[in-house]
């Protein structure tokens, strides 16, 4: 698959919302045997991306990089933790498409992954600004923005995780892809889809995309970041901004009527905060590995831990339930 399914659904937006394919689609779906009561499936995004750092960040960049070029920006200015996968993916894919990256980095708990990630970031070609805290990042933002203006070209300013209305299109696209796989009989229509939520773009894009694709699947977001507002109201607000973006760029469709009551967000598996592991996440990571699923304990293993606990509590019934593995490392 080379073109965007979203463009097939709304051909009128193809010129106004450009897209570049950065990975091989569709990503695979398969049954997972983790001893759950519910029929469990996985859509594995871990291999998505033709180079650099993979996973769900690449889905967002497929829309964000062309948008940056459409705006004439030479630099993407964004923010992340010191172990940011988003920042590294932006730097690597941006460089391949002639766009520089400037990163404001906020401290997070330091472990082997963060140390290795910082080395990768230093070698990525990105300009790094160590702003240390959320408050200092906010205060430094105007200075960073002015500093990155080049020859009258303004930088493309993006929030953490690329979770802007344009970035959320990455998982509107993934929801359309899932609907195509359901229609082809590759998996049954899930009653629930469980995903980690670090900045909100994946959950918001899924919630909107599932509606547009005609699926009744409910998004269950497992919040792993305590530095951002990520309740159902904020997720649906971002989905609504993405819906309005589609209309503003020419898409014609009936209002989805998406409401906060239509998604489930939980912070029960966050633990001490962003970047901190938990015993439940470590256990889920080990169980996943036995089933051939590679996770990490900051994002995806917390989401799987939530899924396993909710399954045990009978929340999903017999399912089917879909786990979205958004972790995509590259050595």
Overview of the structural elements:
The protein has ten helices and twelve strands. It has 331 residues and is α/β, with parallel strands linked by helices. The strands form three sheets. It has a six-stranded mixed sheet, with helices on both faces. A four-stranded parallel sheet has the order 6-5-4-7, sandwiched between helices. Helix 2 (56-70) crosses helix 6 (165-183), helix 6 (165-183) packs across helix 7 and helix 6 (165-183) crosses helix 8 (232-248).
- Using the alpha-carbon principal axes, give the shape: globular
The level of helicity is 25-40%
Please tally the helical runs, counting DSSP H or I stretches of 4 or more residues.
Answer: 10
Average pLDDT for all residues: 95
Order of helices and strands: HEEEHEHEHEHEHEHEHEHHEE
Give the helix/strand class. alpha/beta
Number of strands: 12
The Cα radius of gyration reads 19 Å
Q: Low-confidence segments, ≥5 residues, pLDDT <50?
A: none
Separation of the first and last Cα atoms = 25 Å
């Amino acid at each position: 698959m080379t073109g965007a399914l979203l463009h097939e659904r709304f051909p009128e937006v193809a010129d106004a919302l450009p897209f570049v394919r950065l990975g091989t689609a569709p990503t695979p779906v398969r049954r997972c045997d983790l001893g759950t009561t519910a029929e469990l499936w996985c859509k594995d995004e871990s291999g998505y991306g033709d180079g650099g750092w993979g996973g769900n960040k690449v889905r967002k960049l497929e829309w964000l990089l062309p948008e940056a070029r459409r705006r004439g920006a030479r630099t993407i200015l964004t923010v992340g933790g010191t172990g940011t996968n988003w920042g590294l993916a932006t730097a690597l894919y941006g460089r391949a498409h002639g766009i520089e990256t400037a990163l404001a980095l906020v401290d997070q708990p330091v472990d082997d992954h963060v140390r290795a990630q910082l080395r990768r970031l230093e070698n990525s070609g990105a300009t790094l600004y160590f702003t240390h805290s959320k408050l200092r990042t906010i205060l430094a933002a105007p200075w960073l923005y002015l500093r990155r203006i080049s020859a009258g070209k303004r930088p493309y300013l993006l929030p953490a995780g690329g979770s802007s209305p344009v970035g959320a299109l990455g998982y509107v696209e993934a929801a359309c892809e899932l609907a195509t796989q359901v229609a082809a009989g590759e998996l049954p229509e899930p009653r629930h889809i469980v995903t980690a939520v670090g900045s909100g773009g994946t959950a918001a894009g899924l919630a909107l995309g599932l509606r547009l694709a005609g699926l009744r699947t409910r998004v269950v977001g497992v919040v792993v970041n305590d530095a951002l507002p990520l309740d159902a109201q904020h997720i649906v607000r971002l989905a609504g901004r993405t819906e309005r973006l589609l209309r503003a760029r020419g898409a014609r469709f009936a209002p989805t009527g998406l409401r906060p009551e239509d998604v489930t967000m939980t912070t029960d598996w966050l633990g001490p905060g962003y970047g901190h592991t938990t015993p439940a996440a470590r256990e889920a990571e080990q169980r996943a590995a036995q089933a051939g699923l590679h996770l990490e304990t900051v994002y995806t293993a917390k989401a799987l831990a939530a899924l396993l606990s909710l399954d045990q509590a009978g929340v999903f019934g017999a399912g089917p339930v879909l786990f979205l593995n958004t972790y995509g490392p590259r050595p």
